Amino acid sequence: MEILHFDIAAPVPAGGTRAMALVGVVASGNLEVLVERGAAADRCAIEISTAAHGFRDLWDAVVADFVGRRAAGGLRIAINDGGARPDTVSLRLAQAVRMIEEPEA
Amino acid sequence: MSSLHQSWYEAGARERIAALVDAGSFTEYVGPERRETSPHLGIFDLPAQFDDGIVVGAATVDGTPILIAAQEGRFMGGAFGEVHGAKLTGLLRAAKALNRDVVIAFDTGGVRLQEANAGEIAIAEIMRAVTEARIAGVRVVGLIGGRAGCYGGGGLIAGCCSTLIISEQGRISVTGPEVIETNKGVEEFDSRDRALVWRTMGGKHRTLIGGADLFVDDDAAAFRAAMLAALVRPAKAGSVRNASSVPFGRGERPGLDLATLDAEQDRLERRIARFGDAADATDIWRTLGIDDARAIPDMPSAAFATLAAQYRESADDAR
Amino acid sequence: MRQWNTRKQMREERIAAGRGFATGKLVDPETLVDFLEAVLRPGDRVCLEGDNQKQADVLAKGLAAMDPARIHDLHMVQSGVVLPEHLDVFDSGIAKRLDFSYSGPQSARIARMLFGGKIELGAIHTYLELFARYFVDLTPQVALIAAVSADRHGNLYTGPNTEDTPTVVEATSFGSGLVIAQVGEIVDTLPRVDIPGDQVHFVLDAGRPFYVEPLFTRDPAAMTETQILTAMLAIKGLYQPYGVRRLNHGIGFNTAAIELLLPTYGEKLGLKGKICTHWALNPHPTLIPAIEAGWVEQVHCFGSEVGMEDYLAARPDIFFTGPDGSLRSNRAFSQTAGLYACDMFIGSTLQIDLAGHSSTITANRIAGFGGAPNMGSDARGRRHPSAPWLQAGAEADPDTAAPLRRGRKLVVQIGETFGEGNAPLFVEKLGALELAEKLDLDLAPIMVYADDTTHIVTEEGIANLLLCRNADEREQAIRGVAGFTEIGRGRDKAMVERLRERKIIQRPEDLGIDPLDANRNMLAARSIKDLMLASGGLYRPPSRFRNW
Q1: Structural domain for A50, as ranges
Q2: Which fold does the domain C220-529 belong to in CATH?
Q3: For B195, which of C264, C265, C543 is closest by C-beta distance?
Q4: What mean pLDDT is predicted for residues B49-76?
Q5: Is 0.90 exceeded by the ipTM?
Q6: Whole-model pTM?
Q7: Fewest C-beta atoms under 10 Å: which of A48, B311, C103, C346?
């Protein structure tokens, strides 16, 4: 497995009060995203575990786009990747930050 | 938003639990934030899942406390590994200790190839835990209707449950279609013939031969209603209880005993004697007295349930 | 003195030669190959039907079994190259030259044979274009067609899959050519007459139905959340603001997802009756929920779809049906409808370049065009106004006075930024260009030209090319929805943001689309079984699509 770490500036703080959110599933072409709170309010920490080696540049681009577009400040994000396409990763990240804004189920 | 019901087949493990239990009542044990992942998959450069493909915890249904587990059929086909199995074993042991009924939403292809020994041991431990819980009077209700079906060791565990609820999409078997074809040839079983797979292992057939007890639509609400009905059924045959006057979770709940197992053994022997020569499920359905056996697969659920009630072999002796 | 009836004489000679193998018009199936060798001549122009869906498969087998020493160098003019026999005749030398339109299942083999020089390529056409040439310079001398049944006079019943047959027979029979029909059975009375018997010269009782493939069945179970998100973008960002009522959909999963979102997401947006009421479309099973929910007023079909027959017959207010009750399709008319009477075409493609040209042809797959370029082009001959057409015209050309301004058809390419096998949708150079170089073609096979394309929709957003004022803006608008492909990552971020402010690019968040709604629960049907149930049991899916 390749483990990638990102700790990047995230200008928009995450909304809601929920402690954690989980979206997706580890399956072929899919991934799970676990979001917890705990990073500094203007940072976002992301850890990715993937079996598809050698795509750091692509993850870099996806993560940068994500923190630019979504309210990700203060979040710690852990990803188990089943070889998802970047558009799927992007969608799951967007779903995860939306989910943590929602009231507890 | 959708005008449709919530499909059980489509739902993930967490969505299934949410559909079954009282809103907000679920407390997860060893949740994903604990990151109790498989110690084996990394060796094969395979990604782990934070909950190892099974969600376990406590909840209430119509106010009554139960324990509940749901497998995630999309992660490694819902297969059992060391952690996955241990979570279910622990839940069942807790059920016995707490004297609480258990609901298991199966969705599994069996044991993970990558952790076969740990997985096989887990199956044996779970079967023992189900049996011990049942002897203590706990109901263990199995729900089957997911993508992966209920195969391999999952089929064995299901066989130990006190009630099985199944939808048309649900499949129960120990050996799966592909394995049968690989070992016995395509003439014996064509695993790509979807209609054959479903009429041999699917919910309608299992209901008709007493391999499952309650047949429901592929609808999460229907699974919930059937689960509630199963939780008020006597934990064992012969324990007569008025379901409407005695709330479930209380009252007399005599457990599984030798007499019950003997009765089930007798029933299975009768089944072999009666259907052993049948070449196809439709032959069995005809032997059961259903004239238009070929119409069964296309039959809507309600019509099928009526027909099944009249003709099916009952498994109530065993469960 | 010139003789003015040589063609008719030639036909009479062929009929006379064929009579030896026939009783009346009825060909003896045992002698099919001898019969074909008797009525054909080397170098003939032959239309072997060869449609998008139905195939004159028994006649194709007969043709391929002929002796190439006797019949050779045929010029095949057929819309669909679908069966192996359609190419076998080129391997054996029976045929030499090919003019066609679509080659779906044979796309890889046809590419190999073109590279290997086994086929002399005339051109790859759109359907309408090839049909047009049947009446100008590619009139067949012999047509081999397929129908459901015939009576003893040679009248034909095609059933719901009428498709190309009337067009092929019109050109061949009135052009003094010979028409030979394969039918599943001979009956005393036909349910309806699709082709009059005096246009048909010989009939072969094949003893079984012609081959037809379900091409338009998209299993909702395979639809992804990304496809659902993209479909939501299209509905909210295009269908709603333009008020698109008359349209054609391609056959991909993206547009099937749109069909399944109409009764759910479309309903929530209050769009029922305001969009998607009139269609030029094959009978897609995924349209059933929208039809049943009362969204659809009328559908005209190019062909039919396996399993939909009873449903179509039970909905004659929606579909065009014959006196027998069953569907009557017609590819030429429906293509014309798509070209002139629809305000939007939306479909998927394999590659889009930085100008906005798109193609489904890659260097080793030549799938042809089918009808997409006719649907996916602005009809310069159109004169009737409609609100979406005028609005698109105004966006493209705000400075011209309205009475002199042409409208524009909305031509939308929709897809995920990465397609099958993680192939990027966006490329620097189209595979079609490489193919043109390799085969020394005058024209690269472009599916939809850049100047016809008005919008591109991906999961990242919508690019409105009508609003772009120069090539630079156009390129950045395309890069701006190209996601994480090389093309997308090569964008000028500042310029893309400016385009977003001008609404040339719109993202899901700009349109208020919640990513949590991009969920399969949003689909009005999530399985083939749901579609069957929605149809009240009238839709009978083929067994391969069943899991019950």
Answers
A1: 2-101
A2: Glutaconate Coenzyme A-transferase (3.40.1080)
A3: C543
A4: 97
A5: yes
A6: 0.92
A7: B311
